[in-house]
Amino acid sequence: MNKSKLIELLLIIPLISVLAACQNYLDVVPDNVPTMEHAFSNRNEAEKALFTCYSFLPNEGNPDYNPAFNAGDEVWTYWPMTEDYFSLDSYNIARGLQNKASPLMNYWDGYNGRSMWQGIRMCNIFMDNIDNVPDIADFEKQRWICEAKFLKAYFHWYLFRMYGPIPIADENLAITASPEDVKVVRQPVDSVVNYIASLLDESAAGDDFTGLPLTITSRATELGRVTKVAALAMKARLLVTAASPLFNGNTEYQTLANHDGTPLFNDTYDPDKWVRAADACRLAIEAAEAAGVQLYTFSSSQITLNDAQKQEMSIRNAVTEKWNNELIWGATNDDIGNARPSYWIQLFACPQLDPGVTNLSLKGKFAPTLRMAELFYTANGVPIEEDKTWDYNSRYELRATTSDDVGMQPNYQTVGLHFGREPRFYASIAFDGSTWLMRNGTFNIRSKLGQHSAKRQSRIYSVTGYYTKKVVNWNLVATSNQVTVEPYPWPIMRLADLYLLYAEALNESERSEEALPYINKVRERAGLSSVEQAWSEYSTNPTKYTSVAGLRTIIQQERGIELAFEGSRFWDLRRWKLATRVLNASVYGWNIEQSTYEDYNRRLVLFRQSFDNLRDYLWPIHENALLINPNLVQNPGW
């Protein structure tokens, strides 16, 4: 971190007014108070201090502030952009422009007003002073302490996932600390993981009536605050990440060491890390199911839908229905203080739907790549290149639609790639010739040149020809004068994610048969048959699921599909050490500036991505930080 940040972390910072981080409980913010004694003089002031801890959470629902959206290969956007963005950092990372002189999305020193180290310090201040509050009940104090421990763990986790081995800020440095005490060192990966896991264990400790609640019961005021289930689920994600190839036996980082020779990566693979991860996943699932968390399925008596539409809304609303019963923990903060965590991603994703309405707030620029369109299964639930009944070689050739083609307009033409695909494909992605179901009607997407969803100017269009339907709440309504958006908490963790993490950990622990039911739960909700049935009947590799390596590939693709456009793929490709292969490839889209079926439906190379095997898996530390603190060492390749 730079010098100013080090000084900032040593000083007792005032509790300043911060942006509201939740639609319900963080609309109360701390006053600008001069003394720590006043900040913890009573329950109300202490609660403001707790909400200050929450305020440092990264803005994970905004597509420009979360690297997992635009910095990878799931979506692409026209270039250059002169407006319609908050930050260009993630787009530049995707284009290979990360650097150590001025690191992009630099959460080490602070980015978008969020400093993870300052957040950690605030949590430490809170825990150091909460016992001084005279008018707080013990059960409430214990809950708040557990919340602060969770947030402290989460800030460490966020840095760990980006930078790998990091310093551990277990206690705040005193104002009188010596210069040498300030010059902290990075801790080995295993030490960092164990420390974060221990904090999460402490935050989740106790029965249903002590510490963190199992569920949020005061839904009008506390939705978005941490629960035991959230703490256990985040521990599961942490340990699955730590057991994955990037951090488990990574020999390419064996030379990364502190100046005293302490290695920061253990280059010996440890299978027990997967066993530990599987145990953590199991405990998290048991707690989630005990709390009533379950895979979401659409049900409404207020509107009549056919079976295919109900299936689509089961998939879409698992993400976009506010506080639905699949959500384990959702981000409720945004960058403006208006408690609209998914507001901007919806506007960035939604195209012009109604040919009679044009509204420039609908950007349609959050555009899935052709690679993502090809990732989804066929209707038979297997990869398109494996399905022996699906014409893979003719996937780019035009075909005519009929009234029997679900998710598409009849009497239209589009490529074979869009026919005979699984329900999640049509629920997640829209394209020229597809339909888009909203509560106020079904709209036809027509995006060839001159049509209503097409490019009309130098901005507000999909550069690939695809649109991200999945992240748009179906209650969005646009008129010529305004757009009404129903924000939802951005899903940091939902049950389908946890099921697939468990399946992965079981498979890597050589318990593949135990993994299959959890994959199949997710597939069943998506309208697909089991892995065993789908591969046995339709795949050219019918026994693929019977080996650890084969099921690993299935699980990885299942995660890519189920969690598409939710900020998972970016980190999954890194922890699996697959980014070197996947992200050294061209980004493709359709020839969107054409008006005929034949010309529009031709592939175009939009960009050639590159990914350095040594350098790009971890973020660079700002080179100034290394000058200020010579005890820090830089990440490999930087």
Automatic annotation (TrEMBL):
It is found in: Cell outer membrane. Its main location: membrane. Residues 25-238 form the SusD-like N-terminal domain. Keywords: Cell outer membrane, Membrane, Signal. Residues 326-638 form the RagB/SusD domain. InterPro entries: SusD-like_N (IPR033985), SusD_RagB_dom (IPR012944), TPR-like_helical_dom_sf (IPR011990). Pfam families: SusD-like_3, SusD_RagB. This is RagB/SusD family nutrient uptake outer membrane protein.
